[in-house]
Every structure is written in structure tokens, then in C-alpha cells.
Write a structure and sequence with these properties.
By secondary structure, the chain is an alpha/beta fold. It has one domain: TIM Barrel. Helix content is about 45%, strand content about 15%. It has helices at about 25-35, 55-70, 85-95, 115-130, 140, 150-155, 170-180, 195-200, 215-225, 230-245, 255-260, 280-290; strands at about 10, 15-20, 20, 40-45, 75-80, 100-105, 135, 160-165, 185-190, 205. Strands 1-4-5-6-7-8-9-10 form an 8-stranded parallel β-barrel, surrounded by 4 helices. It has a two-stranded antiparallel ribbon with strand order 2-3. Helix 4 (about 115-130) links the parallel strand 6 and strand 7. The longest helix is centred in the C-terminal third of the chain and has 17 residues, at about 230-245.
Length: about 300
């Protein structure tokens, strides 16, 4: 039986930039903050980490640094997806060599593969590595969604351990849980769906909000896993305004802006991403103030 790569709150960590390169010193500070605050896994070079704007060398540098700095304290999961199967194989193998504990592989964007194409893509990837893989379903960004029936086919592969589910469809999550074996694990890919997905058997969340509030996101999932859904639901509702503010513009614009306002000095966004509008900057700042997250 396959084991979950992690249970709890994994942070989809931002990538700090300085002078046009990855700021490893700032990344180290972020990692220490996350691990000391109870984060259960580090997910590096995902959407929130701006991986699609990073060079191949930068991606491998960031993955290797996170593995070395984490020192086994928590699993490090490397984003190694691409819209090209061959590129994704290369990224996955190199991330594996760098010591990543697992791989996060997004659906191949832009191509809009059929369900058969998705099965062949992910099976080819899983055959090419020995590390466990988490699929990543985020149709709002990729233009394609993995069907529950496709998960059922993919779940038979020994290296495919589950999915970061960010389709926004709780109905699809229910059908996935009904069709797939127990050892095909589901993690919420949307912060505001953490509690309902855990209630449907999910093992936690891969979280954007955890960049700011790692302890609270860890607590949220801990309550779910302890079957205290009344308390978990209350905390989910309490965090809703902050989570909404972190998605007032496309991720990771708001979360990186928020971290800079909090004093973390994570640098600028890379084009084509840019700073938020003045209205949304005010919203982010005012929300951080309400949640007592700004420096005093």
C-alpha cells in the first residue's frame, strides 16, 4: 500500500528574487520560518514559486537548496511539470537527483490534452522516475482538467500517490474518492476548500496562505485530521477574508506583495506578472492589518 507523502499543511513556497537571481539567503529565512511554525512539507518551484518564469538552472538551484536546508525535517516536493512530456521527464529526473522527496506534476498546459493523452503523459513520467508523484489539477490555469475516471486509471501506477486538487469541484472530489483506492491521496489545492476536501477524505492542503500564516494552516488541517470539523470550520471561516485577499489578483502577485509588506523582502515578481493595482494593494495592506500581520 502506498503511503501519503505528507499529511497536514504543505506550503507552496514563493521564490525570492534579488538582482535577477534566486535569493537563497531570503529563501533560507522563509524555510526556517515555515518549519519552525509547523508546516508539514515544502513545495518548491510550483505556481506560487513562479517556476514558469525561472530558468532550468534556477529551478534546480532552488530545489537543491531547499533539500539541503530542510535537512530532512520535512519532505521537499519539487514542481517538475511542463507542457512538454520530455521536458517534464528531464525536470523530474534532475529534481530526483537533487534529493527531492517527491514530485508535483501539473497537467500539460496549453496543449489541452485528451484524457487518454493525460494518462499517457503521467504514466510516461511515472515510469521515468522512482520518486512518488503528486498530480496537480488546476484547470483555471492550464485549460484541461483530470476526470475522476482518469484518476482511477492513473492510481494503479505505483509511483502515482495522489493529486493536488484545485478544480474547485467538490462533486469531482467525491467521485474521485469513490472511484479510487484508499492509497490514492487527495490534497486541497485551494486554501478555502481545505476543510470540505479533508471532510471528503483529503490528507491536507498545499497552501498559498501558509506563506503568511503557517501555524494557522497547520492547525486547520490538524483539526480536520482529528475529526473536529466544528472547530476546523470556524477557523476556515475566520481565515476566509485573508485567503480571498491573497487571490484578489492572479497568484502569486498578492502573496508576494503581502510578504514584502510583512518585511520578508522576497523581491519583485517576474514578468509577465507585475505589482497589483493600487486598489488591490490597499486591500492587501488593510487585510494584513486586520489580521495583525504587519510589523509593529
Amino acid at each position: 500500500m502506498k503511503l501519503p507523502i505528507f499529511t497536514g499543511s504543505g506550503v507552496a513556497i514563493v521564490t525570492p528574487f534579488s538582482d535577477g537571481t534566486v535569493d537563497l539567503e531570503a529563501m533560507g529565512r522563509l524555510l526556517d520560518f515555515q518549519i519552525s511554525s509547523g508546516t508539514d512539507a515544502i513545495i518548491v518551484c510550483g505556481t506560487t514559486g513562479e517556476a514558469s518564469t525561472m530558468t532550468y538552472r534556477e529551478r534546480m538551484q532552488a530545489i537543491a537548496f531547499c533539500v539541503e536546508h530542510a535537512e530532512g525535517r520535512v519532505p521537499v516536493i519539487a514542481g517538475s511539470g511542463s507542457n512538454s512530456t520530455e521536458t517534464s521527464i528531464a525536470l523530474s529526473r534532475d529534481a530526483e537527483r537533487a534529493g527531492a522527496d517527491a514530485l508535483l506534476t501539473v497537467t500539460p498546459y496549453y496543449n489541452k490534452a485528451t484524457q487518454e493523452g493525460l494518462v499517457r503523459h503521467f504514466t510516461t513520467l511515472a515510469d521515468a522516475v522512482s520518486s512518488p508523484m503528486i498530480l496537480y489539477n488546476v484547470p483555471s490555469r492550464t485549460g484541461v482538467s483530470i476526470a475522476p475516471e482518469t484518476y482511477a486509471r492513473l492510481s494503479a501506477h505505483p509511483n502515482i500517490h495522489g493529486v493536488k486538487e484545485a478544480s474547485g469541484s467538490l462533486g469531482a472530489v467525491q467521485r474521485t474518492r469513490a472511484l479510487c483506492p484508499e492509497d490514492f491521496y487527495i490534497w486541497s489545492g485551494n486554501d478555502d476548500e481545505t476543510v470540505p476536501i479533508c471532510a471528503l477524505g483529503g490528507k491536507g492542503v498545499i497552501s498559498v496562505a501558509a506563506n503568511l500564516i503557517p501555524a494557522q494552516m497547520h492547525q486547520l488541517v490538524s483539526l480536520c485530521l482529528a475529526n473536529d470539523f466544528a472547530a476546523a470550520g470556524a477557523l476556515q471561516i475566520q481565515l476566509k477574508d485573508l485567503i480571498d485577499a491573497l487571490f484578489c489578483e492572479v497568484n502569486p502577485i498578492p502573496v508576494k506583495t503581502a510578504l514584502n509588506l510583512m518585511g520578508w523582502k522576497v523581491g519583485t515578481l517576474r514578468l509577465p506578472l507585475c505589482e497589483p493595482s493600487e486598489a488591490n494593494l490597499r486591500r492587501i495592506r488593510e487585510t494584513l492589518e486586520r489580521y495583525s500581520l504587519l510589523p509593529q
